[in-house]
Amino acid sequence: xxxxxxxxxxxxxxxxxxxxxxxxxxxxxxxxxxxxxxxxxxxxxxxxxxxxxxxxxxxxxxxxxxxxxxxxxxxxxxxxxxxxxxxxxxxxxxxxxxxxxxxxxxxxxxxxxxxxxxxxxxxxxxxxxxxxxxxxxxxxxxxxxxxxxxxxxxxxxxxxxxxxxxxxxxxxxxxxxxxxxxxxxxxxxxxxxxxxxxxxxxxxxxxxxxxxxxxxxxxxxxxxxxxxxxxxxxxxxxxxxxxxxxxxxxxxxxxxxxxxxxxxxxxxxxxxxxxxxxxxxxxxxxxxxxxxxxxxxxxxxxxxxxxxxxxxxxxxxxxxxxxxxxxxxxxxxxxxxxxxxxxxxxxxxxxxxxxxxxxxxxxxxxxxxxxxxxxxxxxxxxxxxxxxxxxxxxxxxxxxxxxxxxxxxxxxxxxxxxxxxxxxxxxxxxxxxxxxxxxxxxxxxxxxxxxxxxxxxxxxxxxxxxxxxxxxxxxxxxxxxxxxxxxxxxxxxxxxxxxxxxxxxxxxxxxxxxxxxxxxxxxxxxxxxxxxxxxxxxxxxxxxxxxxxxxxxxxxxxxxxxxxxxxxx
Length: 569
Hints:
It contains 23 helices and eight strands. By secondary structure, the chain is mainly alpha-helical. The protein has a two-stranded antiparallel ribbon with strand order 1-6. Helix 6 (132-149) packs across helix 16 and helix 21 packs antiparallel against helix 23 (522-549).
């Protein structure tokens, strides 16, 4: 073991080594956005000097005259004008659309001119404060962080894993891993070592348990049966960039709920098959020193049972959650209650369910209430001050997100104010429209691109802030809704998380592996995870195309298609 670790600075070789070197050479994401701001400022000034301009275009339905049975044009009874109706595309069953020029040319706006530089400085605070993802994720994480700090998440994950039958251990571990992303990064820390211990106690390779847990937590990161802070964060980014093309467009955190909930069962089945057919047979033949199964009885399973205090905490948390859900149901379903029915936003005429528009506060209370009850039961919370201390703990972990949000908010604001984003979207959308590619081909190409980018920049939000200003409005030009672009991004972002050295938790997973296989290296980990990555990527990409073909909504009121009349779900 000493010899294996004596040369940690050896230059990595091969394709994965190249990816690792490139990724390590990149600056911190916050600095990337800072450099991006400088780049936008310079390009915007060049655009003004060069006289860049783009003729704005918009989509409209292709209309055709309506004829009566005699072949004469049908006339409107009120106006006497010929009646027209949308032309239906026989291949899709939807109205045909065409791009037409609309309005005055859009020109680049310099951020290095006197007025432009003043705008950058005068709006810096507002750009940050009004950045939608910032407030959304901070509010949600107050509740999530409290539940995590009190130990509720750790106990839930352990309890769920201990309750399942041995034959269903693999799909259960993968499912728990997928569901664990509601607890932010807690699944990375708790589930892999627990899965290793459970597999070893069952006479199976602990490395197989680690791989199954890592696949669920990381490769299935976007899928879930519930709505969490991640959904709110990414929906805010999507909304900001959809408004480049449609200022009134809004995106709800629940916009991908149906698709991601259905994806949960799909990924569990795919991961189970990969584990049983590829990963575990390969690891089962190894010696115990290499991470294979032990020849003895293994670890005493009783050492991992829940303590009486933990049982008491779960009971209190369950009662508290049931009471909260009962109150929530009454607020939603009782006529006249605060969250019952829908409302119309006077600014854009959009109709939305009341409870959907309050999803972020609801997520906060859904974690705060049972988290507080658990903390009181186990003694983690003894006074009101302890509740606040748990929330402060959550905010400490959000420092990197807040820092990155400051620079990301400036980047998006600069990109929008310079008009470069809108100009690029119009040019790109026009070219794609002229190529006449099917939406499914466009979406698959986007998924492949993001999968590659994920090998270099593993942060979900950092990547999306970079690609969303281009692809969200560009795809809107092609009739693809922002909600569908977001769903495709979430598919691509998750699948390659488990094979990129840029994933900060790769080191954590590798450390757990080396407990059972001291000579294991990054190659051991990647070789175990590559089958999951390929299978998840292929099946999930096909699944979203099938979803598109069936024309199913992605979430409550979330469409697959965008048209100029749309104002969000």
